[in-house]
Amino acid sequence: MAFPVPSHLPRKASPQDVSTKVLTKISEATTKTLTAQLATSWVAELDDTIHATKKRLHERIQSDLPAFERQLSTSKSIQDRLRSLTSNVDDLSHALSNPESGLIPNLVKKLAAHAALTQQASDAQVSVNVQTHLQRCRSEFDSLTLSLERGQLPDAVMAGQRLEELIVNVPPPLGQAQVMMDLKKRYQTSKHRTHEQLDDAASRGLVVTISEIIIRPSVQVRRSETILDLQSILVSLSPTSLSARLNTIRRDLTTHYIDHILSMPTSVSITQANSPSGLLEHRLALFPSPPNTESRLARLESLSSVLTFLQTHIFSTLPPTQDTPFKQSLCKPITTALLNHLLIPSLPSALHSLPPFLELVEQAVEFEERYLVGMLGDTSHEKPVKSWSDGVSGQYERKRRMEILDRARIVIVRVDNESQTFRVEVVDATEAAPAQSVPEPAKEEETAWGFEDEIDGSTAVEEDGWGLDDDVEPQPDLKSHPEAQEDAEPRTMEDDPSDAWGWNEQEEVVPETDTNGGADPPDEADPWDDDPWGDSNSGEATRPPPAPTIPVTPALKQAKRLEKFTAKGKNGHANVVEAPAPLGTTRTTPLAASVPSTNGQSKSAMGKTTLPPPPPVVKETYLVSNRVRDILNMVNDVLHEGKELTASKIFPLTTSSSLPPGTLLLQSAPAVLDLFRALHPVTFSTELDQSLSRAMRFSNDCIYLSAEIGKLAKREGALFAVHEKLVHCQECLRVLGDSWFEDIIDNQRENVDTILMQAEGFVDTAEQDQFDVCENAVSDVLRNIRQVAQQWKPVLPKTKYYVAVGSMVDAALSKMLEDILALPDIPAEESHKLAELCRIFNALEGLFVQDGDQSSLIVVYVPSWLKFSYLSELLEASIADISYLFEEGALVDFEVDELVKLVKALFADTPLRTNTINKLVGGHPCRG
Question: Can you list the positions of beta strands (E) in 62-182?
Answer without folding.
Answer: none
